[in-house]
């Protein structure tokens, strides 16, 4: 096995930590979000009878194009962003709340942002309760961000060819050790095949955010991922 | 599914060894017993899957009063003339042949302590797990002037079968240039796009047979499912025919007089030649009798559709209050598979996989003009939560819309086979 340069391991480890914090931000607690919203309530109102104040009201926010309420005077910056296609969904709100000027440079919202990912997830979950409910309007926005389980069952049902997998595995074992071991780089041997396929597709569809793995998985087809899963699921050293 | 294989084997072994088997033995009967109330998309699917997958280890009884099941889905296509009534009718014969004990009777009570279901015919049926999938009933007094005794003059046609045939007959007999009025329901209700697909199908029927007729929809809601798609379709196919009166224009302020055949919308009285009243809905009556409802619906745990009030009772489909899934046949069918897997696991120690749900609703706007909306869902501790979704776009090509309609026909065959065998 080729040895992995130490610097490389450090970079990967940092990426894994980052990916972990993104995953934890996917679940918001609406009740906790109501408390977080007190930071916003000076300028924004939400709920029955909410009206524009210094900022626009936030009812029906999800799925709405930015700067699209006709009776509110938005900044030029936001009008431009809206015209450019910016819509409010969990992911865009998360980015906006983390750093408002990242999405609209000259927004009049004088707020430095919520740095804590869980605070953002909570307040997003709270605000979500004041937009259309998918049980009444099925096309309404998601109430959860996509998970890595969001896979076509047909993909999970594919039976991979382990021999083909052995061939393909050469690309993986440059970094991952065929004998297992997970210092610096995770072990990928003897995984349940479903977990392996799920994870690889999560990279492929960019749910998992490791850039190297996105690149590697991005060019693997469904059959190839299944073959790799079959191979690594039964590999013996 | 990311369930770890070792954890999973350990759990199921423990369940088999310490929970399910002693419970069954202690009850002093050989086979665990599942009773399902309601033979629609939720109940029939659950009964069939449990009977099939337990391979005789579980006794399954389905209690369903009607001998012929008419699907609510596609009943609008019957109104529009795209289906015959027999096309949407299904017997329970294949389900019985598949090992389900089908009892045609009404469930009229549940004794949760004794774990028995009382039937109108006088019998008492014991259960280890009870699955309630009774669909919907109507909230009394929801539309001023209307009650069930008026359903012949002003049909709801929101439980398919004789009501659908009645509404169709009234539409066919409508005088030239007459008026069809629909009173649409408030949220939440069965099949969110259903009333609007119906408006489309009635418009198609009238366009063909009675082109000067008018359609008025009184709606208590400011918007509805697939609204942009329907409104685009109505403007294209039925210009000037449909007057939708939403909440902003008093669509929720409605009373009817079934004797005089008048409808008063926000103070203005209209003479109706045919009036379709779809009142506010609630869980099927047996759910309330079983004591598992809060308000109008029965809250459930998303992971296995078990009632929040009783772990031995599961509630499926329209009656359940589960979170983000729309009340639809597709949803009920999806929930039934999760429930069947969990119930079998609890009773026999079989593998229990993580819940995963999905839904798609197709609607027909005009011949070969089909649209769809759908989403995937997962179980969280609080509810069934929507993960991702899609909807047909406005302005799609005719070929795309035709393909969508053809897909819906394939789905109809698929789901009815999946439910009933």
Structural class of chain A: mainly alpha
Q: Mean pLDDT across all residues of chain A, rounded?
A: 80
Helix share bin of chain B: 25-40%
Strand line-up across the major sheet of chain B? 5-2-1-9-20
CATH superfamily of the largest domain in chain A, called what? Cytochrome c-like domain
Topology readout:
The complex is a heterodimer of chains A (237) and B (421).
Chain A: H1 6-24, H2 30-36, H3 76-83, H4 90-98, H5 100-103, H6 117-128, H7 153-157, H8 162-168, H9 193-204, H10 211-218, H11 222-234
Helix pairs in contact in A: 2-6, 4-6, 8-11, 9-10, 9-11
Chain B: H1 5-26, E1 33-37, H2 43-54, E2 59-63, E3 68-70, H3 75-80, E4 89-91, H4 93-97, E5 101-103, E6 107-111, E7 116-119, E8 124-126, E9 129-132, E10 136-138, H5 162-172, E11 179-183, H6 194-209, E12 214-218, H7 227-237, E13 242-245, E14 254-257, E15 262-265, E16 268-271, E17 274-277, E18 281-283, H8 285-289, E19 298-299, E20 313-315, E21 320-321, H9 329-348, E22 356-366, E23 369-379, E24 384-391, H10 398-420
Parallel strand pairs in B: 1-2, 1-9, 2-5, 9-20, 11-12, 11-17, 12-13, 19-21
Antiparallel strand pairs in B: 3-4, 6-7, 7-8, 10-18, 14-15, 15-16, 22-23, 23-24
Summarize the structure.
The complex is a heterodimer of chains A (237) and B (421). Chain A is mostly helical. Helices cover 44% and strands 0% of the residues of chain A.
Question: How would you sum up this structure, described in words?
Answer:
The complex is a heterodimer of chains A (about 240) and B (about 425). Chain A has about 240 residues and is mainly alpha-helical. Chain A folds into 2 domains: about 5-20 and about 150-235, Cytochrome c-like domain (Cytochrome Bc1 Complex, Chain D, domain 2); about 25-130, Orthogonal Bundle (Cytochrome Bc1 Complex, Chain D, domain 2), CATH 1.10.760.10. Chain A has 11 helices and no strands. Chain A has helices at about 5-25, 30-35, 75-85, 90-100, 100-105, 115-130, 155, 160-170, 195-205, 210-220, 220-235. In chain A, helix 9 (about 195-205) crosses helix 10 (about 210-220) and helix 9 packs antiparallel against helix 11. The longest helix of chain A has 19 residues, at about 5-25. Chain A is elongated, with a radius of gyration of 22 Å. Chain B is α/β, with parallel strands linked by helices and about 425 residues long. Chain B has 2 domains: about 5-135 and about 280-355, FAD/NAD(P)-binding domain, CATH 3.50.50; about 150-275, FAD/NAD(P)-binding domain, CATH 3.50.50.60. Chain B has helices at about 5-25, 45-55, 75-80, 95, 160-170, 195-210, 225-235, 285-290, 330-350, 400-420; strands spanning about 35, 60-65, 70, 90, 100-105, 105-110, 115-120, 125, 130, 135-140, 180-185, 215-220, 240-245, 255, 260-265, 270, 275, 280-285, 300, 315, 320, 355-365, 370-380, 385-390. In chain B, a hairpin with a 2-residue loop joins strand 15 (about 260-265) and strand 16 (about 270). Chain B is globular, with a radius of gyration of 22 Å. The two termini of chain B are about 25 Å apart. At the A-B interface, helix 9 of A face strand 22, strand 23 and strand 24 of B.
């Amino acid at each position: 096995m080729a040895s992995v340069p130490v610097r490389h391991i450090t970079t990967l480890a940092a990426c894994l930590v980052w990916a972990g914090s993104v995953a934890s931000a996917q679940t918001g607690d609406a009740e906790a979000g109501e408390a977080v919203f007190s930071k916003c309530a000076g300028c924004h109102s939400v709920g029955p009878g909410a009206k524009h104040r210094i900022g626009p009201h936030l009812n029906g926010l999800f799925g709405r194009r930015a700067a699209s309420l006709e009776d509110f005077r938005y900044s030029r910056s936001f009008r431009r962003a809206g015209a450019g296609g910016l819509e409010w969904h969990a992911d865009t709100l998360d980015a906006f709340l983390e750093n408002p000027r990242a999405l609209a440079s000259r927004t009049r919202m004088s707020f430095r942002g919520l740095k804590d990912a869980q605070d953002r997830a909570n307040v997003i979950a709270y605000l979500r309760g004041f937009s259309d409910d998918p049980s009444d309007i099925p096309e309404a926005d998601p109430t959860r961000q996509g998970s890595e389980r969001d896979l076509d069952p047909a993909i999970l049902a594919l039976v991979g060819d382990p021999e083909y997998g052995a061939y393909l595995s050469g690309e993986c074992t440059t970094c991952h050790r065929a004998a297992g071991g997970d210092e610096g780089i995770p072990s990928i041997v003897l995984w349940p095949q479903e977990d392996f396929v799920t994870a690889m597709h999560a990279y492929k569809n960019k749910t998992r955010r490791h850039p190297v793995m996105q690149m590697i998985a991005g060019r693997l087809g469904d059959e190839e991922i299944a073959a790799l899963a079959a191979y690594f699921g039964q590999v013996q050293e | 599914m990311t369930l770890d294989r070792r954890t999973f084997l350990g759990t199921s072994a423990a369940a088999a060894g310490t929970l399910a088997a002693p419970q069954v033995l202690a009850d002093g009967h050989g086979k665990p017993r599942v009773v399902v109330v309601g033979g629609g998309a939720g109940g029939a699917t659950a009964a069939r899957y449990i009977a099939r997958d337990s391979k005789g280890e579980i006794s399954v009884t389905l209690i369903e009063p009607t001998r012929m099941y008419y699907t609510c889905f596609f009943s609008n296509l019957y109104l529009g003339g795209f289906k015959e009534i027999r096309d949407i009718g299904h017997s329970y014969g294949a389900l019985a042949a598949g090992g389900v004990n089908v009892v045609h009777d009404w469930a009229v009570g549940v004794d949760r302590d004794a774990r028995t279901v009382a039937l109108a015919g006088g019998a008492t049926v014991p259960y280890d797990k009870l699955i309630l999938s009774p669909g919907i009933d109507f909230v009394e007094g929801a539309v001023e002037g209307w009650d069930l005794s008026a359903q012949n003059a002003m049909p709801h046609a929101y439980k398919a079968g004789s009501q659908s045939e009645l509404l169709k007959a009234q539409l066919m007999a409508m005088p030239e240039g007459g008026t069809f009025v629909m009173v649409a329901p408030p949220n939440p209700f069965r099949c969110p796009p259903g009333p609007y697909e119906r408006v489309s199908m009635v418009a198609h029927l009238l366009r063909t047979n009675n082109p000067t007729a008018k359609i008025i929809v009184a709606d208590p809601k400011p918007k509805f499912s697939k609204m942009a798609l329907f409104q685009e379709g109505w403007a294209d196919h039925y210009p000037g025919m449909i007057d939708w009166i939403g909440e902003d224009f008093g669509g929720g302020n409605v009373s009817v007089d079934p004797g005089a055949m008048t409808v008063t919308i926000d103070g203005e009285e209209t003479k109706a030649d045919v009036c379709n009243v779809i009142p506010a809905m609630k869980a099927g009556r047996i759910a309330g009798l079983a004591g598992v409802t809060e308000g109008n619906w029965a809250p459930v745990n998303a992971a296995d559709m078990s009632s929040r009030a009783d772990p031995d009772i599961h509630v499926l489909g329209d009656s359940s209050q589960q979170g983000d899934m729309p009340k639809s046949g597709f949803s009920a069918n999806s929930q039934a598979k999760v429930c069947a897997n969990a119930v079998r696991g609890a009773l026999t120690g079989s593998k229990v996989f993580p819940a995963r749900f999905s839904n798609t609703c197709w609607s027909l706007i005009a011949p070969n003009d089909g649209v769809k909306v759908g989403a995937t869902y997962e179980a969280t501790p609080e509810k069934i939560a929507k993960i991702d979704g899609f909807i047909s776009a406005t302005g799609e090509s005719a070929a795309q819309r035709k393909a969508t309609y053809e897909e819906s026909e394939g789905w109809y065959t698929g789901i009815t086979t999946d439910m009933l065998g």
